[in-house]
Batch of 3 targets.
Target 1
Amino acid sequence: MDLLPDAAPLATKLRNTLVQYHSVPDSEWRVAKRTKDATVWRKPSQEFSGYLYKAQGVVEDVTNRIVDHIRPGPYRLDWDSLMTTMDIMETFEENCCVMRYTTAGQLWNIIAPREFVDFSYTTSYEDGLLTCGISLDYGEVRPNFVRGFNHPCGWFCVPLKDYPSHSLLTGYIQTELRGMLPQSAVDTAMSSTLANFYSDLKKALKT
């Protein structure tokens, strides 16, 4: 078990990594799934042997309210059907925290429930916000869970120039689920999970 990292340099490095993903040209992405709410692309990850996923869609709400629903806090558990528990383990200044959360089984439990411990950081980006995270090897792994690992991931949320009450939400996710899993099952689950994330989020914001 590692000690907690110094929050400030980790936050800076994480933000820079996400901004780098955000500038990857369109030609490097391949469409994985399209729904009425979002489009999901993927490309080979440089962090591990799986994929870096990019998801994008327009959400009818202001940036701050959307990000409040995504980042660690009371809203997330209410609407995110994949997340089953969430605890804030440590809080730092500068909108940083360490959270532990668990996810439900997927694909008829081919993918068993997972546990993650993530460092999370929310900061301004252009006219909007970026909330991003990375997993840490921290805390005891609880029984009945496989400990997954999130490589640098995050959500950019910026108001649309002509419709400031609408926001463009772009996510970058690269999750190493670990455990004995067929890669094809993981890839199917990731694309669907990201598309569902948008539809669930939109429903939550309307309530």
Target 2
Amino acid sequence: MNPLPSPAPLASKLRNTLVRYHSIGDGEWRLAKKTKDATVWRKPSEEFSGYLYKAQGMVEDVTNRIVDHIRPGPYRLDWDSLMTSMDIMETFEENCCVMRYTTAGQLWNIIAPREFVDFSYTTSYEDGLLTCGISLDYGEVRPNFVRGFNHPCGWFCVPLKDFPGHSLLTGYIQTELRGMLPQSAVDTAMSSTLANFYSDLKKALKM
């Protein structure tokens, strides 16, 4: 089992990577899916042979409450239908931890349940927040799960000045599911999962 990395340099590098993704011009993205709740684009990832996905939508709530529902904590399991378990393995400080979580099978179980161990970090960004993460090679892989790997991922949530009580939520996700999977199935699942994430989150925030 690899030792845990030092959290401060990892958090700083992760934040810088997400800010760089956030500055990628519109022309580099290709539309993948559009629903009433969110728009999803993609571009080839620099990290692995799959795609970096960008999802964006307006959410009716304040930034802090939205991010509290996304980052590791008690809310996430209540509403995220894809996530089946979550354990905080290590806590470095209030906004920084290592978590292990599992996801349900997808696409009629073509994609079997997955397990991830992620370093998670939440920090301020402009007038809002950024919560981001990256997978670590840490902890034993549990039986019945394939260990997936999240390359740098994150969610920017900033208040919309023209719409009080609303926030713009922009996510960057690049998940390497691993295992023997057709890439087309992964791409279909990712676009739909990200669009559903917004609709599920909106329902949870209204409760």
Target 3
Amino acid sequence: MENAVIFLITSGSGRFMCPGPGAFQCTFTGLVFVMTREAEVLYRTVLWPDGLLESAGKTPAGMLFNIKCSEGAISQLHLPHCETKEALCFNRFLSVAHITDDDGMSILEPMRIIDTHVSVNVPHLSAFGLVWDTIRSFFHKKLTLKGQVLLFLRPPSGVPPILDVLLLQENIPLSE
């Protein structure tokens, strides 16, 4: 797997040019893009829509990424997760939300779940994020996540102030 060169546009946004087919990992977010051809990829973190997950019996398990690229250039996404090995025994509770402006939300079953990432085929681009079944909380209340928490207070621009909380996986150095 190759590391993509990331040019941060603004906080939580990335842009890079994939030189051709292959798998490329963002050194900042841990996202992996499996490319079918050369293409420019733009992505940013966005807020989860209010109420959409709750009505589907899901809760966020990570950041929501809005991804833009030429159609068909990305065949798979590997979304980073912070689950422990014990929690992965119950991986049927972990899936990927695919949120579009037109169709709302669909839930994609993972192709594969490994210690660091959840892999899905990409039907078409929009917003993707990891979700847990709400029922998971009843079975896993004592399971922990691997990682480190980063807190960022946004510059004052309105009321109330916004605090961003970022959970980095255990295998990503803080310097990155």
